[in-house]
Amino acid sequence: MNEQQLYTFIEVARRRHFRQAADALQLTQPAVSAQIKSLEEELGTTLFYRSNVKLTSSGRLFLPYALQIVELIRESKDLITENEEKPVKHPMVIGTTSCLTMTVLHRLTHYFQSFNQHTPLRVLTMSEEELIHAIKEGQIDLGIAYSLESLPSFIQTKTLFFDTFTLITSQEYPLTKPYSYISSTDLEKIPLISFAPSTMERRLLDRVCKQHGIHLNIMIELTSIDEIKSLVANNYGAALVPTTSVYSKNSSYRRVRLVQFDHSFPVLLYYPEKRYQSRTLKRLISDISGIYSAEDRFGE
């Protein structure tokens, strides 16, 4: 049994397709088939059904051990590299949503510079659905996102902090001139720029407004937080956005305080339940409560 056989086995198990696994591994399909056959002969069992490619009962039993062996090989290489003071080849890959990117980058970058200088950090922006898929496929190590309504059984979560919605307008927007705060009743009269219904942020906003009996007057719907803030800055309207996405030093828009609108929603750490975790990953999961406090409420 060798490392390449294990990588091949894991890739076929993930994709349930020999040709797709071969393309991902940059091998020929006969080479992939030969490696799987050799591994099966060594183990004395059949790992895949061939007609409709899926794991046999033996294959399902072997998969978590194959993942653990591969991760141990990676960890041992990283430890040796770290001992020799060379850059680690495998970065820590974290997925997050566009609204949380700056908060995640600021704190995690500081953490890695202080405690994991030999581990490169890679942060990817994606939707919540893409984040869950990336965790399942092993494309990212961790995810940071708002709470999902339904969660697959293979995902574990940990609360990092709590976020809120805040109202932003341009400096010239008429609403901000007479007063610097509004009530939830006045909020219903304001034409708003908001997230598209398909986004997690919009689903969270709808849930909060339903709890308060508020019916928003939404005129423009967009999928990108940057597009929303750009329209707000150019005086196209006001917007309710997550507080973590509002930069206090940005002078192109301002925050307006909402009264009678108490609420909060959690930001969670997502990670695979049964996948083997490297030493660096275990430490990050343990330390992340110190990077982010569950008592944090941004913008308060």
Automatic annotation (TrEMBL):
The keyword DNA-binding applies. InterPro entries: HTH-type_LysR_regulators, LysR_HTH_N, LysR_subst-bd, WH-like_DNA-bd_sf, WH_DNA-bd_sf. One of its GO terms (cellular component) is cytosol. One of its GO terms (molecular function) is DNA-binding transcription factor activity. Residues 1-56 form the HTH lysR-type domain. CDD domains: PBP2_LTTR_substrate. Gene3D superfamilies: 3.40.190.290, Winged helix-like DNA-binding domain superfamily/Winged helix DNA-binding domain (1.10.10.10). Signal peptide: none annotated. Keywords: DNA-binding, Transcription, Transcription regulation. It comes from the Bacteria. Belongs to the LysR transcriptional regulatory family. This is HTH lysR-type domain-containing protein. It comes from Thermoflavimicrobium daqui.
